Amino acid sequence: MATTRILKIALDTPLDRYFDYRWTESPEMPSLPAPGQLALVPFGRRSIVGIVVAIEDSSDLPADKVKDVLAVRTQLPPLPPQWMALCGFAADYYQRPFGEVAVPALPKNLRALQSTSLDRALKKLAKTTVLHDPAPADAPVLNEAQRQAADTIADARGFAPLLLYGVTGSGKTEVYLQAAARVLQESAQQQAPAQILILVPEINLTPQLEQNVRQRFPGVAIATLHSGLAEGERMTNWLMAHLGQARIILGTRLAITASLPHLKLIIVDEEHDPSYKQQEGLRYSARDLAVWRAHQLAIPIVLGSATPSFETWQHAQSGRYRRLELRERAVKDAVLPKVKLIDMERDKPSAGLTSNLISALKLRLERGEQSLLFLNRRGYAPVIACDACGWVSSCSRCTAFMVLHKPDQRLRCHHCGLEQRIPRACPTCGNIDLQPLGRGTQRVEEGLQQIFPDARIMRIDADSTRRKGTAQAAFESVHRGEVDILIGTQMVAKGHDFRHLTLVGVLNPDTALFSQDYRASERLFAQLMQVSGRAGRAARKEGGNPSEVLIQTRYPQHPLYAAVMGHDYERFADVLLQERQQAGLPPFIYQALLRAEARELQIAIEFLQQAATCMEHPGIIMNDPIPMTMTRIANVERAQLLVESHSRPALQAFLKSWMAELRVMKTRVKWSLEVDPVEI
Ligand code: ADP
Ligand code: ZN
Ligand code: ZN
Fold first, then answer.
1. Is a pLDDT exceeding 80 seen at residue 680?
2. Fewer CB near the terminus (10 Å): N or C of the chain?
3. Which domains does the chain possess?
4. Ligand 1: which residues within 6 Å by Cβ?
5. Shortest-distance atom of ligand 1 to CA 173
6. Widest Cα–Cα separation across the chain
7. Closest ligand to 176 CA?
């Protein structure tokens, strides 16, 4: 008689359990499946791919309720136990079913009903000869601080969380590369394969880093993983990592769930960056998962930043993380820029630019140097309004304004995507003189063109770089010196090593000073330090002028700006951390946020009230349900309930039973839980 087994399979469903399927030995499925293998199974009326988690002799279900497995992808080596454990941890920690975390973490083509593209990719990879010559190409000589940092990383054994705290331009990348070189070389000597995972926050930073890494390690297979890859490429790269062929894996946050059987070192560049936090679906922190992964595998992890997140800084202060410091810029004679404030009450801006900033731009144009203007608001104007009756362009579906986009003559809601033509006249009173209020990058660009008609001006934001490849092309032309004035959103503020830039102008940063979100000032400070750090990265010429950062503000007395002027992250962090401790805010308390969405706000609030009182909660602070700041998006009303605890285990234990309770609660409200929320 043919052998049969029951496979426990994890599927991408909201049901928090595994599903039983029968495997029967047959010519199509000759070998016994193993945990970590992918299997195609019938589910309802569909077929879907799941992950085998266990193999048992029998099922608790009656035999006629157990369906047969349709296929097992035995051509693919099983997902290793460490990968299963990572997804298991993420599922537990973020309070989701295992299948809902693990299955979507795989590339889409792996989950396809047909295995043709998998087979093709595997065949192609089997044919490529994989070089593992770790010898690096020529590298610059590290300065003393860099060398100490690189040695500490490469010498670290076991779980070693290291904060690489280095000012902007201090050459953190070079430290990563040379530490990586040593890890690869030692592994080659010991004939034990090593993989290194490097995470970067922004997809636009991957080409530059990828190029550096490829040049440095001509004999090593490198794979990138980010959302900009086509599905086929994504699967091939993922397979290169999973099969152990790729030795350096470079990616954005989603790369943290790659299968890396020989992982020996993790590097998280710009670890403070908000984009490590996934803000929809499974709201995970790639940085936190990276630390867990390093701990699980007992390997070193490097968290690099000039402005570490307060969580990380706190760990470094308390000694849990070891701090490595780079206090100077790496390029000889490159110095941090001089930061100055321009009081907008005294120097009133026209077209958004103060006369001081215009003069500074003019000077750079005369000297043939580049300038960067940073304004974190895309579009032409955030709203248009009627002076006669007070009408403003609100989105009919959201608690938000419709933003004016001038190049395509549209009003667009940045939250729900609603688009309209610009009305010719006021919809309420017929006034034809509608005025744009405030300014975004497009409007600043327009103003600049009028002031400097001969300057080569380039705007880089989400609108100007929508088509694939345009962002990279734009950055390359900046690097080649084909741009005089660059204007952009946070896209241009991070990480880029612009060599010709000697002036940074910051427009309109004040709004974040008075935000209700206590993290807004941490983010603003980091952003200003980062964008300032784009200036003055090349050696200053003999007798030349230092590069400058000019911040236009109405609040020149604000202590946050004083800290930016002093490049004083440490004092800023220590003061704010003290405030947070006194106020009982993270990282001194642990939080989770239950969100509810409904057609009517009252229904969402009532659900949250019910959730708040549905069980005992000793050791847990249960706050009142409140409408979210952005209450309505796409005609859905949103409310939230914050729960807190001084103990992470207590919060985790509570959440687990709470979720079990909520899952069986009858409600038409759509709800979701976020652990360690960053925007409240
Ligand atoms: P960070 O990431 O710390 O802001 P980067 O890694 O971008 O800084 O390095 C800044 C610049 O310094 C880069 O152009 C890099 O090539 C250069 N650099 C780094 N290390 C050295 C070194 N030891 N000698 C000379 N130049 C260096
Ligand atoms: Zn009107
Ligand atoms: Zn909208």
1. no
2. N
3. 4-105 (3.40.1440.60), 144-326 (3.40.50.300), 338-381+438-578 (3.40.50.300), 590-675 (3.30.70.600)
4. 140-143, 146, 166, 168-174, 330-331, 497, 537
5. 6
6. 91
7. 1
pLDDT for residue 551 is more than 90: yes
Atom of ligand 1 at shortest range from CA of 172: 3
Per residue in 613-626, pLDDT (tens digit) is: 999 999 999 999 99
Mean pLDDT of 473-494: 94
412 C-alpha vs ligand 3 centroid, how far in Å?
A: 8
Residues facing 171 on adjacent strands: none
The pLDDT assigned to 226 comes to 94
Atom 13 in ligand 1: which residue has the minimum CA distance?
171
Ligand 1 centroid – CA 170 distance (Å): 6
Question: What pairing do the DSSP bridges indicate for beta strands 46-56 and 4-10?
Answer: antiparallel
Predicted confidence (pLDDT) per residue in 132-153, tens digit: 888 888 999 999 999 999 999 9
CA distance 278 to 285: 6
Residue 187 host element (H or E): helix 172-189
Q: How many CB atoms lie within 10 A of CB 86?
A: 25
Q: Which ligand gives the minimal distance to the CA of 216? A: 1
pLDDT value for 131 = 74
Residue nearest to atom 19 of ligand 1 (CA): 171
CA distance 154 to 64: 57
Convert the pLDDT of each residue in 506-515 to its tens digit.
Answer: 998 998 898 8
Cα 59 to Cα 382: distance, rounded to the nearest angstrom: 59
| pLDDT at 541 > cutoff 80 | no
In this structure, the dihedral spanned by the alpha carbons of residues 250, 252, 256 and 260, taken in order and rounded to 10 degrees, is: -20
Ligand nearest to the CA of 537: 1
Query: Tokens 């296929």 identify what position?
Result: 71
Nearest to residue 84, comparing CAs of 8, 169, 21?
8
Cβ atoms 485, 457 nearer than 8 A = yes
Tens-digit pLDDT profile for residues 317-358: 999 999 999 999 999 888 899 999 999 999 999 999 999 999
Does 610 score more than 90 pLDDT? yes
CA of 434 to the centre of ligand 2 (A): 8
Long-range pairs of 634-637 with CB within 8 A, sequence gap ≥ 24? 634/397, 634/398, 634/415, 634/416, 635/397, 635/599, 636/597, 636/598, 636/599, 636/670, 637/597, 637/598, 637/599, 637/600, 637/601, 637/603, 637/604
Handedness of CA 214, 215, 216, 221 (dihedral sign): positive
Q: C-alpha angle 169/324/495, rounded to 5°? A: 25
Give start and end residues of each alpha helix (H) in 452-566.
Answer: 470-479, 490-493, 520-532, 559-565
State in Å: Cα 351 to ligand 3 middle: 27
Q: Specify whether the backbone of 285 is left (phi greater than 0), alpha (psi in -120 to 50) or beta.
A: beta
Atom 25 (ligand 1) nearest CA: 331
Rounded to whole angstroms, how far apart are CA atoms 559 and 415?
A: 32
